[in-house]
């Protein structure tokens, strides 16, 4: 009987060691995958930021072109750029109003909180029934 218990103990110890090694390997694999994904995300974000920078330069050039275009139509240059500045201030105001309205509608995870509270209440009620 003791010999069987020793064999069973060795088998359990081996199974636990194998399970620990599997878990370590899985963690290492996940870390490697995350590292590779992080590198890809970094490259992607750098390219995105560069594209945004180039786009902002293009928009700036378009603004200057519009200002000088208005100037070519006979409007004084200072007034043409002042008109453009006013248009951009109005657009910024509209965007701020839009973002303010959307921000006012932001709320916390009310459905998740309600579901969690229901679960807690049900578990508490179930535990209360089992104690009696």
3D architecture notes:
The chain has 132 residues and is mostly helical. It is 92% helix and 0% strand. It has two domains: 1-75; 77-132, no CATH class. The chain starts with a helix and ends with a helix. The mean pLDDT is 88. Helix 1 packs antiparallel against helix 2.
Provide key terms for this protein:
132 residues; 3 helices; mainly alpha; 92% helix
Any chance you could write out the topology, listing elements then pairs?
Blueprint: H1 2-72, H2 77-104, H3 110-131
Helix pairs in contact: 1-2
Major beta sheet, specifics? none
Question: Assembly type of the shown chains?
Answer: single chain
Let me know the average pLDDT.
Answer: 88
How much is the radius of gyration in Å? 33 Å
Number of domains: 2
Helix and strand run: HHH
Shape: elongated
Helix content: over 70%
Q: How many beta strands in the DSSP annotation?
A: 0
What structural class should be given to the helix and strand makeup?
mainly alpha
**Low-confidence segments:** none
Provide a count of the helices: 3
> Hey, roughly how much beta strand do the residues contain?
under 5%
N→C terminal distance: 43 Å
Give the gist of this structure.
With 132 residues, this protein is mostly helical. Helices cover 92% and strands 0% of the residues. The chain folds into two domains: 1-75; 77-132, no CATH class.
């Amino acid at each position: 009987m003791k010999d069987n218990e020793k064999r069973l103990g060795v088998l359990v110890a081996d199974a636990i060691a194998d399970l620990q090694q599997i878990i370590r390997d899985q963690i290492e694999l996940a870390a490697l995958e995350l590292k590779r994904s992080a590198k890809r995300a970094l490259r992607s974000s750098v390219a995105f930021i560069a594209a945004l920078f180039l786009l902002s330069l293009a928009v700036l050039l378009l603004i200057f072109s519009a200002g000088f275009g208005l100037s070519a139509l006979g409007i004084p240059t200072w007034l043409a750029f002042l008109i453009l500045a006013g248009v951009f201030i109005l657009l910024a105001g509209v965007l701020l109003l839009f973002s303010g309205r959307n921000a006012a509608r932001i709320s916390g995870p009310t459905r998740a909180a309600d579901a969690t509270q229901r679960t807690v209440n049900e578990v508490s009620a179930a535990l209360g029934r089992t104690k009696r």
